[in-house]
Amino acid sequence: MQEISFYETDLHGAAYSTVAPDYSGPCALQCIGVGGRQAPRVVFPDAAEARSAAQFAVSWMGGYDRAEVMEAREETPTHLSWVDWM
């Protein structure tokens, strides 16, 4: 699946997704900070929660430069919602 940008800010970061439109399972979020520092990978029950978390991550409150949402077919969610994660 091609990487698609779904949220960008002028001053902060950008969020991307490689989740297929017809996928409905768990999704992982990988955040990358200043200097390429990676945060621990987290998994949400679905793409909607993972995308919400990604948008927060690249906002002025989250502080990350890049957030990537991807399918996590064989993984168990680590957080039920983006609010649980923050």
Low-confidence stretches: none
Tally of distinct domains = 1
What strand order characterises the main sheet? Answer: 1-2-5-3-4
Number of discrete helical segments: 2
Overall structural class, as computed from helix and strand content, comes to: alpha+beta
First-to-last CA distance: 28 Å
According to DSSP, the number of beta strands is 5
Given the C-alpha coordinates, what overall shape results? globular
Helix and strand succession? EEEEHEH
Largest sheet: 5 strands, mixed
Whole-angstrom Rg: 12 Å
Arithmetic mean pLDDT:
89
Strand content: 25-35%
Fraction of residues in helix: 10-25%
Commentary on this structure:
By secondary structure, the protein is α+β, with helices and mostly antiparallel strands. It has one domain. Helix content is 17%, strand content 28%. It has helices at 47-57, 82-85, and strands at 4-8, 14-17, 27-32, 42-44, 66-71. Strands 1-2-5-3-4 form a five-stranded mixed β-sheet, covered by helices on one side. β1 and β2 form a beta hairpin. The model has no long low-confidence stretch (mean pLDDT 89).
